[in-house]
Fold this sequence. Notes:
By secondary structure, the protein is an all-alpha fold. Helix content is 79%, strand content 0%. The two termini are 19 Å apart.
Amino acid sequence: MSSATKEKSWTLVVGAILIGLIVDGMDLQLLALALPSIMKELHLSNVSGGAIATITFAGMGIGGILAGWLSDRLGRVRVVFWAIVTFSIGTALICFCQTFWQIAAIRFVSGFGIAALYSVGLTLAAEFVPEKRRGTILGIMQAGWSLGYVIAGLLSSYILPAIGWRPLFLCAIVPGVVTLLMLRGMSDPPSWFASREAARAAGKRENEFAKLWADKAVRKTFIAWSLTAIALQFGYYGVNTWLPSYMVKELGVNLKNMGWYVASTYAATVIGKIVAGSLTDYFGRRAIWFASALGTAIAIPVIIHYANAGNVAVLMLLFGFLFGAPYGINSTYLAESFPTSVRGTAVATSYNIGRIGSMSSPILIGYASTTYSIAFGLALLGVAYAVTAIIPGIFIPDKMYNPNSLDETAKAAEPALNSARVAPEAA
């Protein structure tokens, strides 16, 4: 295959997954933006409102793990396609819901698709993109998720005040269909096919979960990433779920301005992810991860403490730039931590174990807001970001595997992993 053909191949993959991630981000953020209106119309408490988000994350946790395993077995592209179908239909159906339990049930099922696209789609891209540009490209793709937040914020600023929350959930249908059309005819990456053929030639098909756990070095990396994911998602989704309500209820921001402020916050997140991802191609994944997560841990309580209706627009720009930056690195760092034969399972499972954090954070902040304030709950999320910085900073080396190599070898891990070795992958 010529270099021009290879370039065209991976750019088409990146383009399709990028649009999918934009829709994915829209889907998730629409609920957070509509939550104050939904709570008002359906007479829900703060705890019940937080529970809707928690149920969504429960579906995401189960669906993401299942999708990762299926992607190792059946292929990345097939899983991504059905993920988009699932969450696009689910999002549209919320428009017709009349009770808390109807919304909760639909969001649980939609969560399967949301998590599957994020986990498997980014893994698919990592296996196509050249190593020298992987951090930058995947950082841009992560920014696509935040761009979906921005679009959702802009849409909500007009739709919520004018015609209410129900029509808002119909907006993800058209871009979802466009993504499905782009995925038609797309093939899985060569590294996936090579890994599958190697397993077939060996005459046995091991369970990916058992294979992941049997390798001591891979197991240690998996545990480290799982703990990191819990901390990261506790912090990120706590902010994501309650930031709109915080602006409306505690800072007195009206619905129209809230939509604009949220959009500007996530516009800054887009920039933060791209900057963080690009820097990893020059300074390494681990160093930039540690710096961005620790910086966020320090900044969150300071920003929340000083925020008021007069300065919130400016402070949210800084806030947005910082709190999403680790996600600009996450997919690259994760994909390079595991061999191809178990990459889908390991990446999706470790990340989706983190749903423990995303499920508990919204509801715990709901309780904190009842006893203290939403601002108090948001400020505490700085602790979660500190943990997010420390675990990979100590235990997870850079570039342990090359996701698009057909004859991949593990790089020697650092002493912190206690696993110095060079183990050729059966790929």
